[in-house]
Amino acid sequence: MHIDVDDAGGLTACLTGPTFGAPGTNTPLYCAAHRRAGDVSTYSRACGHRAGGPGACTKRALFGDPAAWIGGARVPLYCRAHRRPGDVDVKHRPCAGPGCPTRPTFGPPGGPPRHCMAHAQPGEAATVYQRRVPLPPVTLWRPSEALRADSA
Known about the structure:
This protein has one helix at residues 143-151; strands spanning 2-5, 11-14, 20-21, 40-41, 63-64, 88-89, 106-107, 125-126. By secondary structure, it is mostly beta strands. It folds into three domains: 1-43, no CATH class; 45-91, no CATH class; 92-131, no CATH class. The strands form four sheets. Strands 1-2 form a two-stranded antiparallel ribbon. The relative contact order is 0.09.
C-alpha cells in the first residue's frame, strides 16, 4: 500500500504494492498506475550503459560476467543491446544440457523448466507456456475427411 498525493493536494491510499521510485534509489514509492514521470522500477537493476548520465539505458539488465560473483550471486550489469563480448544471461538458469546456454522451456509436467527443445527428455512438456486454467480439449476436424467418409 502507498499513499498518493493528487493534483489538489489530497491524499489517496492505493492498495497496490509500490514498485517504482526515483532513479538512483532503492525505495519503492508508487505503483505502476500512480508512478511519476521519470520513476524507474526499484526491483530490477537497470542497464549500466551510461548509468546516471545523458542517454542512459533504462532497459532491464540481464547480462553480466559469468565469473563475477558479488555477495554470493552473479550480478546482471547490461541489457541485451549493450552487453559486452563474453557476457551471458546471469538472471535466468540455462538449459541442463551439457554446455547449452539456452533458456529452458521443457520440464516435467507441473514442474519447473529444465531443458531447451533440443535437449528435452522423453515425457517432458513445455512448462513455460502452460496456462493456469487449462483450455478444454480441442478436436481437430477436417472437412475434407468428413466428405471422404460420406462418399464411401
